[in-house]
Amino acid sequence: DAGVTQSPTHLIKTRGQQVTLRCSPKSGHDTVSWYQQALGQGPQFIFQYYEEEERQRGNFPDRFSGHQFPNYSSELNVNALLLGDSALYLCASSLGDRGRFYGYTFGSGTRLTVV
Amino acid sequence: AQSVTQLDSHVSVSEGTPVLLRCNYSSSYSPSLFWYVQHPNKGLQLLLKYTSAATLVKGINGFEAEFKKSETSFHLTKPSAHMSDAAEYFCVVSISGYSTLTFGKGTMLLVSP
Questions:
Q1: Which of A12-16, A82-86, A91-95 has the weakest average pLDDT?
Q2: I want to staple B43 with a disulfide (CB 3.0 to 4.6 A). Which of A71, A108, B15, B48 is the partner?
Q3: DSSP track, B29-77
Q4: Beta bridge partners of B67
């Protein structure tokens, strides 16, 4: 039973560039959330997708956008990269609104470095 | 609104001694609470979860946590630390299935021989 798969595992980008990160949820899960974890901090919620729509959004600028596909996989796009966007980006999946009962499964993350 | 406070940024123990990682939460609703562990350069692994059933929750690798509503606490314990327990631990709160997860700032557990 595959868990959450994220790609790529590491990425180096230059300031001002754009980046796309990808996530495949755990088999049977249909809800995907994205989190940003800066060095030495706890993860911060970016947004959540369900039924191909953004359901909730955290306190992140519009440079951060996402998409969910019919197979429940998801992408996180960040435009006009800033040095401060350097972080570990985590994807978490769950089944509908049952995450609080059955838990959220996290991927190993994509380490983004902006230079 | 919901929030989580992890009372210690670092905890140091010797192998074989008990572990206590402290967490207090604030929530306007009946929360679900989780503990996650993160080993260096790894993602987050669920240790245990509280979802309004038994207040004493048993997790993986011998960890337990007790939900105390009167104290708004959800402390994580383990009777005997192992070297492999050295990692960062996050206390997390969620107020509904579709709500976001709110993380504490983490507690780094250091285990010495």
A1: A91-95
A2: A108
A3: S--EEEEEEE-TT--EEEEEEE-SS-SEEE-GGG-EEEEETTTTEEEEE
A4: B74
Nearest to A56 among B36, B51, B98 (CB): B98
Nearest CA in chain A to B90: A42
Beta bridge partners of A89: A36, A110
Using CB atoms and an 8 Å cut-off, which of residues 53-112 of chain B contact chain A? 90, 94, 96-106
Give tens-digit pLDDT for B24-53: 998 877 788 999 999 987 789 999 999 877
- Taking an 8 Å cut-off on Cβ atoms, the answer to whether A42 and B46 are in contact is no
Q: What is the pLDDT of residues B58-105, one digit of tens each?
A: 999 999 999 998 999 999 999 999 999 999 999 999 876 556 889 999
